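Long-time lurker, finally posting.

We've been working with Bifunctional NAD(P)H-hydrate repair enzyme (Streptomyces thermolineatus) and I want a structural starting point before designing mutants. I don't trust myself to interpret raw outputs, so I'm hoping someone here can both generate the structure tokens and explain anything notable. Sequence follows.
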Amino acid sequence: MRSAHTVHDVRAAEAALMARLPEGALMQRAAAGLAAVCAGVLGGAYGTRVVLLVGSGANGGDALYAGARLARRGASVTAVLLSPGKAYPDGLAALRSAGGRTTADPAAGEELVRRADLVVDGIVGIGGRGGLRGAAVPLARAAAGSGAAVVAVDLPSGVDADTGEVAGEAVRADVTVTFGTHKPGLLVDPAAGFAGTVHLVDIGLGPDLPGPAVQALQHADVAALLPVPGARSDKYRRGVLGVAAGSARYPGAAVLAVAGALHGGAGAVRYAGSAAREVIARFPETLVSTGRPSQAGRVQAWAVGPGAGEDASARVALEDALASDVPVLVDADGLRHLKGLGRPARGALAGRTAEVLLTPHAGEAAALLDVAREDVEARRLEHVRRLADAYGATVLLKGSTTLVAAPGGGPVRANPTGTGWLATAGSGDVLSGLAGSLLASGLSAFDAGSAAAYLHGLAGRRAAGRDGAPFGAHELAGELPAAWRDVRGAAH
Ligand SMILES: NC(=O)C1=CN([C@@H]2O[C@H](COP(=O)(O)OP(=O)(O)OC[C@H]3O[C@@H](n4cnc5c(N)ncnc54)[C@H](O)[C@@H]3O)[C@@H](O)[C@H]2O)[C@@H](O)CC1
Ligand SMILES: Nc1ncnc2c1ncn2[C@@H]1O[C@H](COP(=O)(O)OP(=O)(O)O)[C@@H](O)[C@H]1O
Ligand SMILES: [K+]
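Top reply, 14 upvotes:
Generated this for you. Predicted structure of Bifunctional NAD(P)H-hydrate repair enzyme:
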């Protein structure tokens, strides 16, 4: 599990740890880790050209001390000082005594950046507010346009550490070396997309950190969540998922949701709705009926909404499922009907004894919250939390770095496995069936949503292949067993 903490929590932990350590010890730990990663990126420091972009705070201090270490190993190091009077004085002295140079001329700095092998971004770290300003903007652009590798110190300058927002210009890093713990912006888009490969340097903050604000599952975490049948299992004990999806207009959504469900751990899938004929033709193992969910027989969870359309039967299916005493996943058209139930947001779901998992994309989340889609996309973390609290439900916000939030606070899970190739029609339907199936097999809405997003992302990467190629959602479903095996294999 990778954990990320807010700036407030990082600063509190640093203060507590610093009080027990000699002055400057933390920064030396950070600089040593940073220099080691830089040397690795360079394939050895000797004879290389390194440019440090140095701002006015301790983030620039880290860059200067790391630059001094690289200079001692034979690199030619120049620091471009963006606030010459304020650059971290002891770091500056260390760089100079190691043979490093400095310049306060931005134009000269840009020229150096263009010829560099490595650019170290020490403009701002967790003290940053808003996008890059002044001379930092052309320097960041020059770095992006040069052949140099760009290593960000703690986080790419210009991105928001806590929210993942990128409000203006920001550094595009190939590698980010972060200290003590991840920051939410390193796991959540759009900021995460600026970070490149993230290395965590342990500076000893662990014991002083509270619970994380954001976490990202890894293979072993998902393997521990996935249901595995045992000697006493039968199809009912493994859990039965009911799928109420598809319509005369969109029968394919039912087929794709069932395809996802058959690969999600439930022992059986019941389909209820107007696409029963299409579903049974493709998946003979499905138990189909054409009536409403309440007439379909016993299930352990419902997945409702993909391709359900706007007519009354889709609304009835949602109301039926919500009236049951089992967990319900609501997606796509189901979300529209949920909003249309007309009662206060929480009221539609209040009184349920079992969990609800909502799976909107940004547009659907925006409609549920009555905000603009761009606001959801810019501040995904804030909006997934707001939605979970407003509806009293667990929310899986789809898109680049899918997020899962439970109501009432606690960490938000950011999915690390996604790929833009997943943005293909019907891929959300597969996810609904998959997550619903995990719900039916007994996982909590939070675990079912995050494990499903993880497997779905892995399957997407497999379907796209190493070099990347488009695929259809049915092919994505076909990769789910291999994604399970990847995850379970890594746990052994
Ligand atoms: N506190 C600690 O013990 C440690 C801190 N470390 C480093 O210290 C960093 C935090 O240092 P600081 O608190 O000094 O803050 P930063 O160095 O992140 O930035 C603060 C400075 O940047 C300016 N600034 C803010 N937003 C800006 C923007 N958009 N454009 C240009 N300038 C901007 C501020 O006016 C302020 O002078 C961490 O990110 C990490 O790199 C590490 O050395 C590890 C130990
Ligand atoms: N840029 C992206 N990066 C990663 N995943 C994405 C991106 N865009 C979309 N996805 C994923 O693709 C799927 C699309 O689902 P959805 O929007 O419901 O489409 P549909 O309704 O056609 O199935 C979701 O799992 C979503 O997280
Ligand atoms: K930085």
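Before you design anything, note these points.
The chain has a mean pLDDT of 96.
Residues 249 and 309 are 7 Å apart (CA to CA).
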